[in-house]
Each structure stands twice: as C-alpha cells, then as structure tokens.
UniProtKB/TrEMBL annotation:
Signal peptide: none annotated. Residues 7-28 have a biased composition (Basic and acidic residues). Pfam families: HD_5 (PF13487). Residues 1-28 are annotated as: Disordered. InterPro entries: HD/PDEase_dom (IPR003607), HD_GYP_dom (IPR037522). It comes from Eiseniibacteriota bacterium. This is HD domain-containing protein. Gene3D superfamilies: Hypothetical protein af1432. SMART domains: HDc.
Length: 498
C-alpha cells in the first residue's frame, strides 16, 4: 500500500540527510531542542486526546501549545518530520537526545507509534488546527490494528494533506539520519533492555492508574511486563539491572516498582530460584507498594518529617496493598506471594519495621528479597529534603554496614552479587588513570563492571556521540577510588539513559 506521500517522505528524508543544509552545529542544536519540545507537546496532546473529546477545552489548550511548537519549527524548516528508528527519535534527521527530563515522554510516544505501526509523522507548514483535530481523532482510533493498517489511506480520505504518516516498514536508519557516523547500533543488548525497561515503567503506570479506579491490580498485565525481564536475566543480560540506576525522571514513582522487580529477579537468580519462581518474584516486586495508593499524595510527597497521624497512614500501606491483591478473583501462587510481599516488605530480618508482628512471624523468602531490593532502590533515590541522593556505592556501604542486621545475610549477599561492588551509576577512577561511569554489573567479576569512559588519562573526554564503552572493564585495570558527586561534577544521568 505504498502511496505517493510515503515515498515522498522517504525521499524527502534522504534528501535532507544529504543536502547539508543543516550542517551548522547551531542548526542541529536548535533542532535537537525543538525536537525535545515537540515530543513533550505531542505526548501531552495524545494523553489528553485519550480522555477528552477534541472539542474539549483541555484538548484545545494542549493543541495550541502543540501548534506553537510546530510553528516555531516551520519558521526555519520546510517541514517538521518526526521519525523513530532503532529506538531513537529524529526531527528532520537530527537525533533527539533522551535527556532525563524527556525520558517518560520519549518512551511513551515510542510505544504509541509502535502500537500503530507508525515510523514517522510529517507536519507540513500548511497544517491548521482543524486538520490537527481530525488527525488526532483518527490517530486515536488507530489503536485498533484494523484501522492502523490503513491509516495513511484513511487520512487521505479525511482530506488531511498536511500531516503525513510514514509506516514503520518504510523507514531505515539511512533514511532519517543526516550524519551517517551518528547511526546508533541496531538492537544491541542495551537497546533491547531499554525497550523492556520503559515498556515495564509505562505498563506499571497503567496498572496503578487502573487499580486506582477498580480497587485491584491486573495481575495478568503485571506478569506480561515481568516476563521479558526474567528472560533477559536468565540469558545473563544485565544491562537492564544497570537501568535501575536511572532516578532523575518524571516517571520515577513507577520506575521504582520496576526497579524493585528487576533487582529482586537479579537476586533471585543468584539464589538459584527457578524461572517460574523468578516470574512470581518479579510480579511481587512490581506490586509491592500498591498500598501507597491509599496514602494521600501530599503525605507521600511531603518533604521533611511526617506528623504522628501521617506516619500512621504511611505505615498502613503494606496492609492496604495486601488487601488490594486479595481482591483479585481466584487464587494462585503468584497472588499469595504478591500479598505477602506487600504485607512484609517493610519488615526487617530481626522483626523490627512494620507492620508490627511478634518474633515467631516467619517472613517469606520472597518478601525478604523484595524488602532488600526496595531498600537499595529507595536509598539511592533523591528526596526533596536531602541535599543529594546517596550514590549506589554509598547505599551498599550503608546496607553492608550497621544496617546489615535488618537483612537476611543470604539475601544481602545476593544483592551484592547482582549489582556488583560498584553498582551502576558509580563514578570510578581506575589504575590506568581513567574516570569511568559504571553502566551495568558484571556478575562474573563484581570488581570489573561494564563502564563508559568519562575522562581519559590525558584529560580528554570522548565525544558524547562516540562513546568509549568497556564491556567489561579490561582485565589489567581496576578501580582505585570511588568519586563522590562533589568530586565529579559532570552530569551522569543522561549518559546512563543513553
Ligand atoms: Fe513500601
Ligand atoms: Fe517501595
């Protein structure tokens, strides 16, 4: 069903890649920034279109912002062509970097495109608001694969001529990139991991929002999100463990659940659990904080100490979570494990913590694993009242130090084995004189993780688009010092997300 506009898109993109009209670095930076802005606006508009009719004020407001973003691009460019190839978005051939603040929108939009088999959208300068309204009505409906299949033709029939859909099958990296040296590697282990991770984060958000409406979580959906995580860890692909170090983005609330699932599965594998048990453990990890839904938002987000009453509300979340899971129809092992993990994830090995139980209470192994993963992830997240977050290395020191009495020693060992002695996100100085950022663990050797070079021994730094990766740290090298954020002031969160 290749029609003229699609071929035009392909050719247009090719020409754009070669004509050199945008070679000036200023131009590229401008497009990169405009691209990020357009992504945010488009994501917000799609989210609104899901809830409101196009005539609603909420949609109209979002649409005006979106149109303003388009107009700004059209001032200098012939069109605004947004394309997604090999896990990256491009605006007019310039790759839009997935900065930390953009991560949620980046991956949610990618999922929207993928669901409709859309590889790109071209907005031509003649586009007006009426056309955009019609377009989004059709685009929303195209969640139905039968409509998605004929999306291009449907748009033409609806007289939408200034917005052109480029089907996913017609796009290849060469078609959209201007700078051929800038091509990302296709489907590396890391790019697969990123896909699984973000799908899980956005899927968890859906589960939580739906559970808020129905009063109970969708266990089947949770299983579907967890399965690919189990698959990668069973294949000894640990890039996904490294992604748990990403904390500074808008979707962290949901990412926390995913991080706990990933870390739990990683630890479960070290402890020799079966594939089935790992999947159940992952679901339990994903749902552990479900009860927080019953805690008012201002209490959850309150910076500083909680009052007695607020603290009491907070301490009820394990019980509320267990109750929510118990409302699921039927009975299964995964449901019982999840219930227990909800109930027991703030209990300590020495029976301190909450809810209060007597010493005879036997905390399930699954819950001990989830509790450990929860603690590790929570310590490293930034809190409004703290100057800075603990680094993952500091977190390990806390957990292995005086706090160790709170945890089952075997489970603590499994944590160290699965995140390594220098967990992802740690900045190290090595014996060879490099400064490196740990990107993911190397379970074969906890002392030699996978890294990305930040500074070479001669003081130079690799270009952001041509990263020097150590997969893993070379045999002859070793870490000599862990740098604190005060010592290495470069921003590492975007590099972790890259
Ligand atoms: Fe919790
Ligand atoms: Fe938690």
């Amino acid at each position: 069903m290749s029609t003229a506009p699609h071929d035009g898109a392909r050719e247009g993109a090719r020409e754009g890649a070669r004509d050199g009209a945008h070679d000036a670095p200023d131009d590229t930076a401008k497009l990169m920034e405009a691209g990020g802005h357009l992504l945010l606006r488009l994501t917000a508009l799609l989210r609104t279109a899901r809830t409101y009719d196009v005539s609603n004020q909420a949609f109209q407001r979002q649409m005006q912002e979106f149109v303003a973003a388009l107009r700004a691009i059209h001032e200098d460019e012939d069109e605004a062509a947004l394309a997604v190839v090999a896990d990256y978005f491009y605006l007019n051939g310039v790759r839009i970097k997935a900065h930390a603040t953009l991560l949620g929108a980046y991956h949610s939009l990618m999922a929207e495109f993928e669901r409709r088999q859309v590889g790109g959208l071209r907005f031509l300068p003649g586009v007006d608001e009426a056309e955009i309204e019609r377009f989004f009505q059709i685009f929303q409906a195209a969640e139905d694969p039968a409509i998605a299949e004929h999306l291009g033709d449907t748009l033409v029939e609806a007289a939408i001529t200034n917005i052109v859909v480029v089907p996913v099958a017609e796009l290849e990296v060469d078609d959209v990139t201007r700078d051929l040296a800038d091509q990302p590697k296709q489907q590396t282990e890391r790019s697969r991991a990123k896909k699984v991770f973000w799908r899980a984060v956005l899927g968890t958000k859906k589960i939580v929002l739906r559970a808020r409406a129905t009063g109970r979580p969708d266990l089947r959906q949770a299983k579907r999100l967890v399965q690919p995580i189990v698959d990668s860890i069973m294949k000894h692909e640990y890039s996904i463990v490294g992604l748990t170090a990403l904390k500074e983005h808008d979707e962290y609330t949901y990412a926390h659940c995913v991080n706990v699932a990933i870390l739990s599965i990683g630890m479960g594998q070290q402890l020799g659990l079966s594939r089935q048990a790992l999947a159940d453990l992952g679901v339990a990890g994903l749902l552990h904080d479900l009860g927080k839904m019953s805690v008012p938002g201002d209490v959850l987000r309150k910076p500083g100490a909680l009052s007695g009453e607020e603290w009491a509300m907070m301490r009820r979340h394990p019980i509320e979570g267990a109750l929510m899971v118990s409302r699921m129809p039927g009975l299964s092992v995964v449901m019982l494990d999840s219930m227990r993990a909800c109930f027991e994830h703030h209990m300590n090995y020495n029976r301190t913590g909450y809810p209060e139980v007597d010493l005879e209470w036997g905390q399930a192994t699954m819950s001990r694993i989830v509790a450990m993963a929860d603690c590790f992830d929570a310590i490293t997240a930034h809190r409004a009242y703290a100057k800075r977050a603990q680094t993952p290395f500091e977190a390990l020191q806390i957990l292995l130090g005086p706090n160790r009495v709170n945890f089952d020693p075997a489970v603590l060992w499994a944590l160290v084995k699965s995140v390594g002695l220098y967990p992802a996100g740690t900045v190290l100085q090595t014996a060879s004189g490099h400064v490196v950022l740990v990107t993911s663990p190397n379970p074969k050797d906890g002392l030699r993780p996978h890294c990305r070079v930040l500074v070479r021994p001669d003081g130079s730094a690799p270009a952001e688009d041509a990263p020097e990766l150590w997969d893993p740290m070379p045999d002859g090298d070793r870490a000599v010092r862990v740098l604190l954020p005060e010592e290495y002031r470069g921003k590492t969160s975007d590099l972790l997300a890259a």
